[in-house]
Amino acid sequence: MDLFEKAARFRRADEFREAGLYPYFRAIDDSAEGTNVVIHGRRLVMAGSNNYLGLTHDARVKAAACEAIARFGSGCTGSRFLNGTLSIHVELEERLAAFFGKEACITSGTGYQTNVGALASLGGKSDVLFGDRDNHASLIDGARLAFARHLKYRHNDMADLERLLRETPLPDHGARLIVTDGVFSMLGDLCPLPEIVRLGRAYGARVLVDDAHGVGVLGEGGRGTCEHFGVLDQVDLIVGTFSKSFACLGGFVVGPRRVIDYIQHTSRSVIFSASMTPASVATVLKCLEIIQTEPERRQALWEKVRRMKRGFEELGFDLIEGGGPILSVVIGDEVATLEFNRLLLEQGVFVNPVLPPAAPPGMSLLRTSYMATHTDADLDRILEAFRAVNEQMRIVK
Ligand SMILES: Cc1ncc(COP(=O)(O)O)c(C=O)c1O
Predict the structure, then answer these.
(1) CB 3.0-4.6 Å disulfide test: which of 149, 184, 257, 353 passes with 104?
(2) Can 152 be counted among the known catalytic residues?
(3) Exposed, middle or buried: residue 231 (CB in 10 Å: 0-12, 13-18, 19+)?
């Protein structure tokens, strides 16, 4: 058989295209990830971005990126390990470590790479990783690459996690690591972190939190889910991404100095991949400064999220109980979700349809997310679009 046979047989995307429902790889022509975007000449309200603090278009952030290009050039052309370390990489890592009250930090090209590299480095062959079943793909892939055994517990089910911790024998010289998203990326719900930390202590397991969607927005100072729950000092390793509140691209992990030193000398995604570009580093440094000095951005975001939650509830929609900047609206059926999404586009609103396996079976979602910079008019337009489409489709009666 020809290797490409599988591609010839792959029909799922074609089926969606033929039905006029295909929702992926939509090219944005203008204003990428601002509150409004232009697609095929039409202006849409963006309710599907992870630009939670609205910093991608901040003039100070853009100026910092341009200055870094002028000083350091457009790229590093090498990994942190060899020729790709700039003084601003070191500065960023020191500032991030201090921000989280941790000893050290190492950055990589993306959040995905950070998780893959850290888990593959830490999960040795006698070790056991305990991961939430709904963890982000990068954690799952990191666990696959690690030599460690990987056990999945039911989503946010602490009794199931405890059962696995209790019942799983540990090989000689083996150790345990619990791995969880802080805010789950598709459902938008938070992990029960205080209970995870308690179980970690009780069973001698270290805890790693991937807080891609929490850092910058949750917690009094924007330090994310760990700060929100008051357990920053009890979580061993925090991973984050720069592709959401930091308005850019890249990832980081913070934790004890010896552990970060180990990761930066053994993580293949740090060693064998080029470092963050100067513009990216400068963008993140400026965003970090803004996160630390402008708490009003977080307040603005939460006001918007609360307003939208009320709005959806008044319209009768079924929302996943969130707690983060994501509000996922349950539609149920896959085709109905895609059709709802198509009609929302016609109404001028961009959201993200989420189908199984990214959503639980029979629970296809429209994932909406908010920015500190959305205006009341933007939010009204989103709610009005949901109301109008529902009138056509009668998802909620
Ligand atoms: C929970 C979670 N972890 C990691 C990532 C990967 O981040 P990046 O976009 O920086 O690769 C994402 C992004 O989708 C995410 O949602």
Answers:
(1) 257
(2) no
(3) middle
Domain segments of the chain as ranges: 5-52+295-393, 59-293
Q: Atom 7, ligand 1: which residue's CA is nearest?
A: 111
- pLDDT for position 31: 81
Token readout for 271 is 């060693």
CATH topology of domain 5-52+295-393: Aspartate Aminotransferase, domain 1 (3.90.1150)
In short, whether 369's Cβ falls inside 6 Å of ligand 1 is no
| Catalytic residue list contains 213 | yes
For residue 19, report the distance from its CA to the centre of ligand 1, in Å.
Answer: 30
Q: Is the pTM of this model over 0.85?
A: yes
Task: Say whether 286 is catalytic.
Answer: no
Task: Write down the pLDDT at residue 132.
Answer: 98
Kindly report the CATH number that applies to the domain delimited by 59-293. Answer: 3.40.640.10
**Out of 28-32, 68-72, 262-266, 333-337, least confident range:** 28-32
Per DSSP bridges, beta strands 176-181 and 128-132 are parallel
For the segment 122-138, what is each residue's pLDDT rounded down to a tens digit? 999 999 999 999 999 99
- Calculate how far, in angstroms, residue 320's C-alpha sits from the geometric centre of ligand 1: 20
The pLDDT tens digits for 343-363 are 999 999 999 999 999 998 999
User: Do the first three CATH levels of 5-52+295-393 and 59-293 match, i.e. the same topology?
Assistant: no
Q: Could you check whether the bond before residue 194 is cis, i.e. omega within 30 degrees of 0?
A: no
The finding on whether 110 has its CB within 6 A of some atom of ligand 1 is yes
